[in-house]
Amino acid sequence: MGLGSRGSRSSSSEVIQVHMCIGFLVRLFFVIYGEHHDQASILKYTDVDYHVFTDAAREVLEGGSPFDRHTYRYTPFLAWLLMPNIQLNFAFGKLLFSILDCFASRLIYEILILDGQSKITALKCCFLWLYNPLVIGVSTRGSAESIMAVLVLLTLYMMKMRLHILSGIFLGAAVHFKLYPIIYSLPLYLSLSHSNQKVVGWKLFLPNYIKMRLVCGTVLAFIGLTGMGFALYGEQYIEEAFLYHFSRTDTRHNFSVYFYLLYIGADFHIPGLSLATFGPQLVLVLALGFKFRNYFDVPFALFTQTVVFVTFNKVVTSQYFMWYLMLLPLVVPRLNISWQKAVVLASLWVGAQVSWLLPAYLLEFHGINAFVPIWLEGIAFFCCNVGVLMALLSSYHSHTQPHHHSTRKNR
Asked: How far apart are CA 218 and CA 24, in angstroms?
């Protein structure tokens, strides 16, 4: 029996490795195609942000600051990571992001196995990320979202492994890289209560040894990385990578339901407008984090929080969808939903994006005044996202197993 079990694990590991290789080859094809497409077409395949990353890396190599490159508003370590774009080949970063994509799919598989899912279920679910056309397109165009995917998934993986300091370290690194994962702190922290069935009210927030390990790891990683960035680049780093995102009022067309309001209000400086748009987002994020605080429901808490955060955000781009698509495979096994309904919901979500792209294309490439149609399509997309989220909430099967986390040996 033991030998058979080892053989089964070995076979399963080989299967996932084969698919990771296939997934990388698919991405490699699109990276090569993108290089050819950029040379032959006016409409470029490579994302604008990738050129920003590369220019920032060039500034570092020349002894300057990555923030000397206008519109570079990320961690300086991303520019460091992509210096081979200049030293070796322009496509290095795309290949790196593609490799991390494949590694993220392996993490999804391992988390689902630790969650008690069968190998077949775990394999099928990780395909939702590995072979997702939107994920493939975003990474091969040069977006760095796969780094965030790996950091967030490592946070959950270490939680499942009971390695709470490491989980905190990866969470702190994720918050340093992009601020939004700070919203995950609430459900992760509350999930480590001794017994969610007995502890209620404000006592849920009381610290214990396990919670403090998570907190210490998070604070250590965030302050360490951010402190290094500040020591290297001073106030310019804090201003560009952090403060800018709090005061940002991007009036360019995007998926956000607030886009047109911010666009027409740009010249009037309406007091409290940013705070008003942030209010519903904050309330819903906190409510969902508290609702699904059970240790076994944490992936669903993170998923629903991210959907709400993106949907209600002042700026919404295609890259933001990666933030919750990486968590979707972790919650699919808990959804009591037919494949027909799943296809309908997915089709509505994709269709709402496609219908938005038409007026956005007319505005971007033909100069046609399509602001109102873009705004109306943004409202439709917002309603679609809310409707899909409500359908998933109603079909989610919460884990009813008693919470025995505190009785296990913690490392």
From this structure: 31
Residue 347 scores a pLDDT above 80: yes
Two structure tokens written together for 31:
């990276």
- What's the Cα-to-Cα distance from 7 to each of 18, 44, 122, rounded to whole Å? 17, 47, 18
Contact present, 253 and 374 (Cβ < 8 Å): yes
How many Cβ atoms are within 10 Å of 363's Cβ, its own excluded?
Answer: 17
Whether the Cβ atoms of residue 69 and residue 59 lie closer than 8 Å to each other: yes
d(CA 323, CA 246): 19
User: Which residue in 50, 75, 40 sits closest to 143, CA to CA?
Assistant: 50
- pLDDT higher than threshold 80 for residue 409: no
pLDDT, one tens digit per residue, over 5-15 is 445 555 777 88
Q: Among 151, 149, 166, 180, which residue's Cα sits nearest to residue 328?
A: 149
Amino acid residing at 135: V
Spatial separation of the C-alpha atoms in residues 133 and 129, rounded to whole Å: 9
Enter the tokens of residue 234.
Answer: 């001073």
The band of 200, judged by pLDDT with boundaries at 50, 70 and 90, is low
